[in-house]
Amino acid sequence: MPVEHSHTGRAIRSVAEALFYRGSPVPNERIDFIEREMLALLRASGLRARTLFVLCLFALVALAPLWVLRAPPLARLPLRTRIRALSRMEDSPLGAPLVLAVKAALCILYYEQPAAAAELGVVQSCLRQGALPPREVP
User: Of the candidates 106, 125, 124, which has an alpha carbon nearest to the alpha carbon of residue 115?
Assistant: First the structure.
């Protein structure tokens, strides 16, 4: 399902591509999933939560390039420069709250995806095979 690329969606996408890069670009379907799910979550959120997240996101997109002495917005920067900008901003006492707020929300969505969770060695079931005896159904 294609994702509508709004300003917020593009901002989510540019941050997610940099946050989840691990030596090779993140597959587009994962970034599409994060963008689509985050936009749906924002639509379903209350006004205060939505406003706070969007303000953090746009502050991050506008300010992160300054940590690598580049002009905003973040999406204009090459991927490696975006990664460096977010990393430096996260290491700063002034920038860390913005980066961590956005990062927390995006990580929850990213690691909901089975393939992403499997890369970390996450087991999808909380029970081991055969850990409980089979129940009898009356």
Answer: 124
Of 103, 94, 113, the residue nearest 31 (C-alpha): 113
CA distances from 103 to 7, 69, 129 (A): 18, 22, 33
37-67: pLDDT as tens digits: 999 999 999 999 999 999 999 999 999 999 9
Q: How far is residue 117's CA from residue 114's CA, in Å, rounded to a whole number?
A: 5
pTM score? 0.81
- Residue ranges of the alpha helices (H) in the chain? 7-19, 28-44, 47-63, 79-91, 96-110, 114-119
Joined together, the tokens standing for residue 53 give 């997240």
Count the neighbouring beta carbons within 10 Å of the beta carbon of residue 20: 19
Q: Which secondary-structure segment (H or E) carries 22?
A: none
- Residues 62 and 64: their CA atoms lie apart, in Å, by 6
**Token pair of 7 as six digits:** 């300003």
pLDDT at 123: 64
Q: What burial letters (b/e) apply to 121-135, b meaning 16+ CB within 10 Å? A: eeeeeeeeeeeeeee
